[in-house]
Amino acid sequence: MQVSIDTIIPALSITVSLAEKSVEKVVRENLNGVTIQDIVFDDYTYHSKRAAYIALELGNALQLDEDTYKDLYMCSLLHDIGYGNVLYKNYSVDEIIGIHCLEGSNIVKHIPKICYLSDAILYHHEHWDGNGVFQKKETEIPIISQILRMSDIIDSEYNTHAPYFEQKDKIKGLISDNVNRIFSQHIYEAFLKISSADEFWLNLENNRYLDLVIKHLIPPIDIKLNMQELINIGEIFADMIDAKSEFTAMHSRGIAELAYMVSKHIGYDDEKCLKMKLAGLFHDIGKLAIPSKILDKNGPLDGDEFSRIKSHAYFTRLILDSMDGIEEISNWASNHHEKLNGNGYPRGISGDLLSEECRVMAVCDIYQALTEDRPYRKGMNKDMAFCILDTMVEDGSICKIAVENLKNALG
How far is CA 166 from CA 12, 159, 163, 213, in A? Predict the structure, then answer.
């Protein structure tokens, strides 16, 4: 099994948007300084794509070589990936800027075949005059980082709720005022080329059509990941999910190991066992869209909160379905809360529509959750957990054979 990395990277970018969706306030840095603001989700949903659009236009104006242009595209989508690990922590505003660069660089270091891009992510908040986060200056800053800095600033300064003609001159002035301070003359001249046309500003204004706008700018990327490399990607996703809560710190990896063990016991071939492990690593990625105050609530959830929790399986499918080549894995992962009697979520499917693999994932998820500590209870021992699973078999919620396979796999 091989999957192209050009479907993985946009999915990673989506997770950043979901992480930002789940917080009430977001750090915003522009030429007027760093602030914490109430989040306007529409702005941040499209931030990576808009930054990618700006970066690719700058890359064309700078006549980057083919390989650098491809690297620029990948970095522009991934530049804020470090936010997923810092938005839930009690960092100061100034700390968040540097820490998200470090976190993002560290994540990219572990992405197979593009780990060399980590420095470009690390230095995307540097200033040409050396007054940036890590005090790199001038040509010490990778050209990709320099382009990302300008792209980030332009998008931060741009107000998607105001007409472009009311703000483009102000943004041009701000950029001009910071030449040889934040930006090099070389990058500034590229900006002058792309910003002279109204089309550039109209493209920023029309979020809904951004996919069409950027489509012709996206370079072909022929990088394939094998199964073990996909497992590495899955572990990155799992770490992003589990970083949200101390109570689920190892939940995704635990599900992955259980699913793998049960698959081995059933007798699946090696590749299918690894696919099940990958589904376990991916299954809760949608929880990035759920506020931590709900995930960590020390008490029963009200109706609205439970509805928000249930939506995580929907978001899991949304992310995984954006990746070509993992359709089976997406199905197994996103159906882990469906029930045989049709009382599950988010689709309410039942019976024969739930494959053996989906049934195994559901049972592994319930067992893992029961045996883990939660804000409102301590984790159960194995016997207590299986007592509950057996009761769920009796009421028609979960599969008896899947439960027996889990028992036998655990010895």
Answer: 34, 10, 6, 22
Q: Is the pLDDT of residue 35 over 60?
A: no
Beta bridge partners of 27: 36
122, HSE (Cβ side, Cα atoms, 13 Å):
17
267 and 202 co-located in one domain:
no
DSSP structure class, residue 237: H
Token pair belonging to 338: 């469906």
> How many domains would you assign to the chain?
2
The pLDDT of residue 42 is 46
CA distances (Å), origin 187, targets 60, 64, 143, 218, 396:
12, 12, 9, 20, 63
Average pLDDT, the chain: 89
For residues 270 and 339, state if they share a domain. Answer: yes
pLDDT per residue over 140-165, tens digit each? 999 999 999 999 999 989 988 899 99
- Name the pLDDT band for 336 (thresholds 50, 70, 90): very high
Is 366 found in the same domain as 293? yes
Q: Give the CA count within 13 Å in the CB-facing half-sphere of 117.
A: 26
Q: Strand 33-38 to strand 25-30: parallel, antiparallel, or no bridges (unpaired)?
A: antiparallel
Per-residue pLDDT tens over the stretch 182-220: 999 999 999 999 999 999 999 998 878 888 999 999 999
308's tokens: 């928000």
The whole-angstrom separation of Cα 75 and Cα 117 is: 7
Q: Quick one: what percent of the chain has pLDDT higher than 70?
A: 90
Domain interval for residue 272: 226-409
Q: What is the 3-state secondary structure (H, E, C) of 175-198?
A: HHHCECCCECHHHHHHHHHHHCCH
The answer to whether position 16 is within a domain reads: yes
Here the CATH number for the domain that contains residue 208 is 1.10.3210.10
In whole angstroms, give the CA distance from residue 32 to residue 264: 57
Asked whether residue 196 falls in the same domain as residue 231, the answer is: no
Task: From 215, 244, 261, give the residue that closes a domain.
Answer: 215
The average pLDDT across 248-277 equals 94
Burial class (CB in 10 A: 0-12, 13-18, 19+), 173: exposed
**Whether 276 and 391 share a structural domain:** yes
Structure tokens given for 147:
């382009």
Q: What is residue 358's predicted lDDT score, i.e. its pLDDT?
A: 98
H-only helix segments in 88-138: 93-109, 118-122
